[in-house]
Amino acid sequence: MNTDALSARSRALDTTAWGEKFRFVQPRNIVFWIYLWLCISGVVKGWQMFSPLAGYYGRAMFIAAVVGVISVAVWTWWFRHVDRYERQPLTLVIVAFFWGATAATFAIAVSANGTLGSLYAKIFGQVWAQDWHAGLSAPFVEESAKGVGIVVLLALAPRLVRTAVDGLLLGAFIGLGFQTSEDLLYSVAGATKGFGAHQTDGLAHSIGLRVFSDILSHPLFTALFCAGVIYLIGTPAQPRRIIRGLALIVAPVLIHGIWDSMIALSGGDGIGVIVVIIGDFVFAFTALSIAFVWAHPREAQFVRDVLAPEVEAGVLTDEEITAAGGWRQRLQYVRAGTGHADRRRRGHIVRAALDLLADLAAAKGQDTPDVIAAREEISRLRHGRPTTVTAQGHS
Q1: Are residues 288 and 320 in the same domain?
Q2: Are residues 243 and 329 in the same domain?
Q3: Percent of the residues in the chain that have a pLDDT greater than 70, as a whole number
Q4: Distance (Å, whole) CA 185 – CA 226
């Protein structure tokens, strides 16, 4: 194979650290102990909040927990589906989720929101604070609390948290953890209204409202915020982009603030509320789309660098590598097929190319049995028959 192409592959794998493992227990890393302290503090404070209610409101809490588990499973499937290139280690994902669910929620946000709300009431009055407290407290407190999580992950896994896409995906899991705990808080609050006389009705209303609001909620906010932190700090794989970083940090704060202030902004008018909701949705998903557009070129280039030697070996075509670099390119490539069968085959080849990418990352570019098997699978899909492909790519 071409020496330059192999060198580019090696550099890309070293820069991105795709395929590397994560070790959570790091006794010599002070950030590891800070993480444990804040997460344990969050667990203790959460227990202190919920345990007195467990007796009388136990059924409501159980139902809310079950709904929360289902929600986490659905969101996790989606986030892992979006992670096209080299999935982050599961342990790192769990660490991100646990920060959002415990430290960011109970150890930081709950008390900070309460303190700031009390301060607003004293300075501006109770009526003003009731209208604007949520929109001028939660966006700053909660996005900061969750955003600290990506800095913690950078300190715990500097080799693995390197690109804006890493920030987007790990930020989404931090936000998912926060959202899960917050949904439980709101669900229990709904069940306790009227001294629990109508637990089921209150719980159902709270869950329904939270399921709707979760479409535009913490996973999206935190994904944008954490990608912005990566741009702002810079890493070996992502040169510093201060303007991009600030834009992606400010955007979720604004989106969150508008969402929490929709009643005050609309003056309580029903149509006005709908207009604010629609506008915020458009703003949020436009910002998310821009974040992926900004992140795509570097990720696509890393994919090309890793897979480029496979073109010379005859395993993949240049067009297939381009398709593996992004969902728009993949969609264009698949749609260019001459019929249903050809389009389906093209889709399978692109997925197989990404599997080969993952195997090459795990093998650090070496021809391991998994890498050879991935090449053979691509050949089988291409020709529609079992074909043996050697490490050099010849049939």
Answers
A1: no
A2: no
A3: 86
A4: 24
Residues 229, 131 share a domain: yes
CB-based burial label for 275 (10 Å; 0-12, 13-18, 19+): middle
Q: What is the pLDDT of residues 196-219, one digit of tens each?
A: 555 555 555 555 555 656 666 888
Q: 323 and 177 share a domain?
A: no
Q: How far apart are CA 2 and CA 242, in angstroms?
A: 37
Measured CA to CA, the distance from residue 231 to residue 239 in angstroms comes to 7
Does any domain span residue 389?
no
207 and 118, same domain (yes or no): yes
Q: Is 2 inside any structural domain? A: no
Based on the number of CB atoms within 10 Å of its own CB, is 159 exposed (0-12), middle (13-18) or buried (19 or more)? middle
Q: Residue 222 contacts by C-beta under 8 Å, 6 or more apart in sequence? A: 100, 143, 146, 147, 149, 171, 172, 174, 175, 178, 252
Reported residue count of the chain is: 395
Domain count, the chain: 2
Which residue segment(s) compose the domain that 352 sits in?
A: 313-383
pLDDT at 386 over 70: no
Query: Which string of DSSP letters, residue by residue, matches 39-65?
Result: HHHHHHHHHHHHGGGTTTTHHHHHHHH
Q: Quick one: which of 288, 340, 343, 296 has its CA closest to 322?
A: 296
Distance CA 332, CA 64 (A): 42
Distance of CA 121 to the CA centre of its chain: 35
The answer for residues whose C-beta is within 8 angstroms of residue 348's C-beta and 6 or more apart is: 381
Contact residues for 264 (Cβ-Cβ < 8 A; gap 6+): 131, 132, 135
For residues 351 and 238, what is the distance between their CA atoms, to the nearest angstrom?
A: 26
On whether residue 300 sits in a domain, the answer given is no
The reported pTM is 0.87
Amino acid sitting at position 28:
R
Same-domain status, 321 and 220: no
The pair phi, psi for residue 305, each rounded to 5°, is -60, -40
| Distance of alpha carbon 356 from alpha carbon 372, whole angstroms | 9
Residue 170's Cβ-count burial label (10 Å; 0-12, 13-18, 19+) is buried
